[in-house]
Amino acid sequence: MDASTQSMDATGSFTAAAWDRIAPVMAEIEVLPLLTRLSDGTLPPEVFRHYILQDALYLKHYARCLAIVAAKAPDNAQVLRFLGSAQKAITVEQGLHAGFLSQFGISSEDVTSAEPSPACFAYTNFLLATAYHSSYAVALSSILPCFWIYWHVGEAIKNRPAVEGNAFQAWINTYGDPQFAAGAREVIALTDIAARAASPTERIEMMDVFVRASQYEWMFWDSAWRLEAWPV
Fold first, then answer.
1. Structural domains of the chain, ranges and CATH numbers in brackets
2. Cα–Cα distance between 36 and 33 in angstroms, integer?
């Protein structure tokens, strides 16, 4: 079986094959200390402050990536559908950030003056470069893991026994919310539509950027747990 064939599963679904490909990455994400301790409410506040501040920086760049991807969509129907699902995700996350930034004493000036961590800087630059320089299908595949992995993680944590007084419950509620799930499902569906129209070479590139972005998702959470800063 050649690489282009491996980019689709037996049903012809690119996204099913892509999700299978990142199974080892997901296994590592699911046991990350940051997520485990966010789930049970024992995450140190300084770790969460670092994470949510970096996430605010990330979202600023991610929103621009979504706009670039939408502009490359092949028809108006996909442009509108993509913008709608992207808007849902951004609105939900902005609301979450606003609440947590206030709750954890992070001012707008703190966000403005903050410097991205090495992991945040690398991830956002990867996404922006892919969005600018790649086809619609490849660019779309690169932004999908953020939607899909957050949905998966949010659902998994939501289904665990709730911890009374968990300071991070709003995070769990956001990513376990049906509105966020609907946006993620729409982007998954659009990626499969794009993959069916893509060339074999494009599908290989789609798989490559999907895997890389998934690895960056792990790196982003892990770096927040370690309070990552620039070493020099």
1. 14-226 (1.20.910.10)
2. 5
Tens of pLDDT along 2-20?
454 567 765 679 999 999 9
Q: Please answer whether residues 56 and 62 qualify as being in contact, where contact means their C-beta atoms are separated by less than 8 angstroms.
A: no
Phi and psi for 121 in degrees, rounded to 5?
-60, -45
| Nearest to 56, CA basis, from 109, 98, 92, 119 | 98
SS3 assignment, position 216: helix
- pTM equals 0.92
Assign 47 to helix, strand or coil: helix
For 21, phi and psi rounded to 5 degrees? Answer: -65, -35
Counting other chains too, the contacts that 13-19 makes at CB distance below 8 Å and 24 or more residues apart are 13/192, 14/141, 14/191, 14/192, 14/195, 14/196, 14/203, 14/206, 14/207, 15/144, 15/188, 15/191, 15/192, 15/195, 17/207, 18/141, 18/144, 18/206, 18/207, 18/210, 18/211, 19/148
